[in-house]
Specification:
Radius of gyration: 33 Å
Strand order of the largest sheet: 3-4-9-5-6-7-8
Oligomer: single chain
Structural class: alpha+beta
Shape: rod-shaped
Length: 219
């Protein structure tokens, strides 16, 4: 047997921990394995396969010496940028001053979402924005510091849901519920906060920025 094959089998014994351990995990008689290790005898293909499998080396390397004992199986991942949409995250916990809220706010970063997931929800990337929740009024549903995505195209009350609203020049994530008399109830998830009612004749003062369609945060 070639010294090269014997040397590679000895490497396998080192990987296993010892010749005795290699004999044990391959069920090859210790005396027979010793012949392989010293080059006095050449193992058949089936025995080479047993040794390679036992220690996790490449059978091609063991048999021929070509390649590496542990080939790099990592695959290069190619990211298709066209598959992702990037939604701006605004630093807009509290906005004040003149102009639209997003004109007064700074974009911190863009968050990536797959276009497929947005399309599945009927969302248009250009009509989306992300904000951070401030305070504990929605505790149990939205935590302080959580990020919410809002659909800016849904800026009218279309049914009960969680919306981002602008009140007294501050942004809030609140549940809105229309009442029979035409007024709108602003509800906090945290029961420590009492609901607020916006009368029908003052609905013009309630500016709905958009409906919350996604939320995420640290556990």
């Amino acid at each position: 047997m070639s010294e090269g094959l014997a040397a590679r089998i000895r490497q396998c014994a080192e990987i296993a921990g010892s010749g005795d351990e290699l004999a044990r995990i391959t069920a090859i008689p210790r005396r027979t394995l010793e012949y392989y290790l010293t080059g006095q005898s050449e193992p058949k293909v089936a025995r080479c396969v047993e040794i390679a499998k036992a220690v996790g080396v490449d059978i091609g390397w063991l048999a021929s010496g070509e390649g590496k004992p542990f080939p790099d199986t990592r695959q290069t991942v190619v990211i298709d940028e066209s598959a992702y949409a990037y939604v701006p995250l605004y630093d807009a916990r509290c906005s004040a001053g003149s102009g639209a809220w997003n004109e007064r706010s700074r974009i911190l970063v863009h968050l990536s979402f797959t276009r497929y997931s947005l399309r599945k929800q009927g969302l248009t990337p250009a009509k989306l924005a992300c904000l951070r929740v401030d305070g504990d009024s929605m505790l149990g549903l939205l935590e302080d510091g959580d990020t919410v995505m809002i659909d800016l195209s849904r800026n009218t009350l279309e049914g009960e849901g969680v919306y981002v609203v602008l009140l007294d020049e501050h942004l809030y994530a609140k549940r809105l519920q229309r009442q029979f008399d035409g007024s709108v109830l602003i509800i906090s998830h945290n029961k420590e906060y009492q609901p607020m009612t916006v009368p029908k004749d003052r609905l013009g003062e309630l500016q709905i920025i958009g409906r919350v369609v996604w939320a995420g945060g640290w556990m």
